[in-house]
Amino acid sequence: xxxxxxxxxxxxxxxxxxxxxxxxxxxxxxxxxxxxxxxxxxxxxxxxxxxxxxxxxxxxxxxxxxxxxxxxxxxxxxxxxxxxxxxxxxxxxxxxxxxxxxxxxxxxxxxxxxxxxxxxxxxxxxxxxxxxxxxxxxxxxxxxxxxxxxxxxxxxxxxxxxxxxxxxxxxxxxxxxxxxxxxxxxxxxxxxxxxxxxxxxxxxxxxxxxxxxxxxxxxxxxxxxxxxxxxxxxxxxxxxxxxxxxx
Length: 247
Ligand code: NAD
Hints:
Blueprint: E1 6-10, H1 15-26, E2 30-34, H2 38-51, E3 57-60, H3 67-81, E4 86-89, H4 104-131, E5 135-140, H5 144-147, H6 154-173, E6 178-185, H7 191-194, H8 198-206, H9 216-227, E7 238-241
Parallel strand pairs: 1-2, 1-4, 2-3, 4-5, 5-6, 6-7
Helix pairs in contact: 1-9, 3-4, 4-6
């Protein structure tokens, strides 16, 4: 589905991002994954190469909230792979402190990575995609972007902002044939969920109409659709993949 395409995936070292990287590679794309440090990036590359040594994948670890570093990283991707067709803004952090204990710096940290980094990467990608005749930008939102969450206000705030970025950029970049969409996952079995006691996960799953939490592959499948030409007339969409969960 992605033969001949080049993708950049931020936060691609584990969890949902890793599943997206693997799914894109299986579908013929060349992929640049970005993580926060060299050691985790190298470990992800090693794991991917041990799955299939023929996959064309590179790794980078720019500070995603620093535009000069982002631009340099995008230049390196273009140097190696020649183009950029798909950008997945997936890197994200979460926190659940009540507002009474919320450190102002912690709020800024969440916004820097979850929102500013997505803006900066989109800003770096747009002129490249425009020059190539189009592209696809896909952001990782969350089910909490629809109705908030009862603690840790920075995280849902950042995901509401991601939906705004998605819908606004879709309207701005449509004329350049750049589609901009988001996937809003529900509770997904990444390291964060794996750390919860199994009874807690069972309780969460019992409240979800489909009766289970999501797997990273469930989420990656949505990214694959939105990245591919099957979604050629889909833009400005926030695709919920959450088993119809309601918080
Ligand atoms: P994870 O913690 O397993 O992975 C996060 C990824 O972000 C890692 O690859 C990490 O390297 C990267 N990252 C973290 N800080 C970074 C930084 N400063 N610079 C660059 N990269 C950094 O998380 P996940 O559950 O796979 O989440 C991925 C995305 O999905 C996030 O945007 C998250 O908000 C969203 N999401 C997750 C769930 C869930 O239940 N797991 C639900 C809804 C949305």
